[in-house]
Specification:
Layout lengths: L3 H19 L3 H14 L4 H13 L3 H14 L4 H13 L3 H14 L4 H14 L2 H14 L4 H13 L3 H14 L4 H28 L1
């Protein structure tokens, strides 16, 4: 059994790694976390943080390995399930992604990022209504999240609610003027609106 001073040292190093991650210093954070893992191969917190940092570095295989290891040690690792869901979504394996993200949501309810990913996976799996509702919940929890605004906007765009989609993309651009995805989506909305108007005119002319 580890003594209290050793446990405190571990906690301090985990906090230091968290600070480095928040600063975008993922390589430095990983160095600390991997040291902790060498000392204690079953340190679930270190594994979760390794997975998160590897995800940020887009080293997906390494992120997946760390997440799977964390889950194998503790099926209650919501971070592990969330990261697996994120990676499965990236691969467009929507059904499996939904399963992992549902588990993460049960373990950590009302988490805006988990709900955003779950809503997106549900929508792409074909559960459009549930996906939109879940994305709306995510947005209510974090109203300034440009990623959620865009995901929700794309969802409304696909169900042809152009007005709602356009408003969401415009909000995303207000928050992040350099957001290329939002800008491209607004242009797509305008093109679709023009196409719908042209189709409507053609139908009217046919009836005359």
């Amino acid at each position: 059994m580890r003594d209290s001073s050793s446990a405190q040292d571990t906690l301090e190093r985990l906090e230091q790694a968290e600070q480095l991650k928040m600063m975008g210093k993922h390589t430095e954070a990983l160095f600390l976390l991997e040291e902790l893992l060498i000392e204690d191969p079953e340190n679930i917190s270190a594994l979760e943080e390794i997975a998160d940092n590897e995800l940020s570095l887009e080293r997906f295989t390494r992120a997946e390995n760390a997440a799977k290891r964390a889950i194998s040690l503790d099926d209650g690792s919501y971070t592990g399930h969330y990261i697996m869901g994120f990676l499965l979504s990236y691969k467009k394996e929507w059904k499996q992604a939904t399963t992992s993200l549902r588990k993460a949501n049960v373990l950590k309810s009302n988490n805006a990022e988990i709900l955003r990913c779950l809503g997106w996976a549900l929508f792409n799996e074909g559960q459009h209504a549930q996906g939109v509702v879940t994305l709306e919940r995510a947005l209510n929890l974090d109203e300034s999240n440009a990623l959620t605004l865009c995901d929700l906007g794309v969802s409304y765009l696909q169900v042809r609610n152009f007005g709602k989609a356009k408003a969401l993309f415009e909000r995303a651009l207000e928050l992040d003027p350099e957001n290329k995805r939002a800008d491209e989506c607004i242009q797509a909305v305008k093109r679709l609106e023009r196409a719908v108007k042209e189709d409507w005119k053609k139908e009217v002319l046919k009836k005359k």
